[in-house]
């Protein structure tokens, strides 16, 4: 059961380095795309210089236009926070996550059920707040992340900015 009460506040920006894949929600459910990425990242994470902390970050970059369903292709980067993006190990990518106001929702329970938390965010909470689909979101997998366990916790961050609010309707005469 997730904490379905988003908290909103400022977040500092950070840089991350990790492995990237293009996938769909359907491919992830049917073939474990992110689980496979996690296994590969575990082996390669020692190659990353300038790491800060031990948390893993799962960044999800969505297609522009706001349309998204189970078959829509999007980019996932699983990595860690680094001091800078000066050195990228071979086969890895870097990404600067911007500072700003974010909504945070904590998913509690096995990651198998995280789609319910995302459903709440994108089908209920964001529409009520008159916000359109943001260009990305990220998850923090820290010491509370216990794969497959009912007491596991994953924080999900959704960027909130003026540019993501629904534009006012234009009147044409």
In short:
With 173 residues, this protein is an alpha+beta fold. 20% of the residues lie in helices and 39% in strands. The protein is built from three helices and eight strands.
Q: How many beta-strand elements?
A: 8
Radius of gyration in whole Å, from Cα?
Answer: 16 Å
- Assigned CATH superfamily: Regulatory factor, effector binding domain
Mean pLDDT: 87
Outline type: globular
Q: What's the number of helices?
A: 3
Q: Can you tell me the residue ranges where pLDDT is under 50 for at least 5 consecutive residues?
A: 162-173
Percentage beta strand: 35-45%
CATH topology: Multidrug-efflux Transporter 1 Regulator Bmrr, Chain A
Helix content: 10-25%
Note the gap between the termini: 50 Å
How many discrete domains? 1
Structure explained in plain terms:
With 173 residues, the protein is of the alpha+beta class. It has one domain (3-162): Alpha-Beta Barrel (Multidrug-efflux Transporter 1 Regulator Bmrr, Chain A), CATH 3.20.80. The protein is 20% helix and 39% strand. It has an 8-stranded antiparallel beta sheet with strand order 1-6-8-7-3-4-2-5. The termini are far apart. The model is unreliable at 162-173 (pLDDT under 50).
């Amino acid at each position: 059961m997730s904490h379905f009460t988003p908290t909103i506040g400022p977040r500092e920006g950070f840089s991350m380095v990790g492995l990237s894949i293009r996938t769909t929600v359907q491919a992830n459910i049917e073939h474990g795309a992110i689980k496979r990425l996690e296994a590969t990242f575990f082996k390669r994470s020692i190659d990353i210089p300038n790491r800060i902390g031990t948390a893993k970050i799962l960044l999800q970059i969505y297609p522009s236009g706001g349309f998204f369903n189970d078959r829509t292709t999007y980019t996932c980067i699983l990595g860690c926070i680094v001091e800078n993006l000066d050195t990228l190990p071979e086969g890895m990518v870097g990404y600067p996550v911007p500072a700003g106001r974010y909504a945070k929702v904590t998913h509690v329970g096995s990651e198998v059920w995280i789609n319910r938390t995302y459903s709440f965010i994108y089908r209920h909470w964001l529409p009520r707040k008159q916000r359109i689909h943001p260009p990305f979101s990220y998850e923090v997998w820290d010491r509370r992340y216990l794969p497959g366990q009912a007491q596991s916790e994953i924080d999900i961050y959704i960027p909130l900015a003026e540019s993501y609010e629904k534009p006012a309707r234009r009147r044409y005469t």
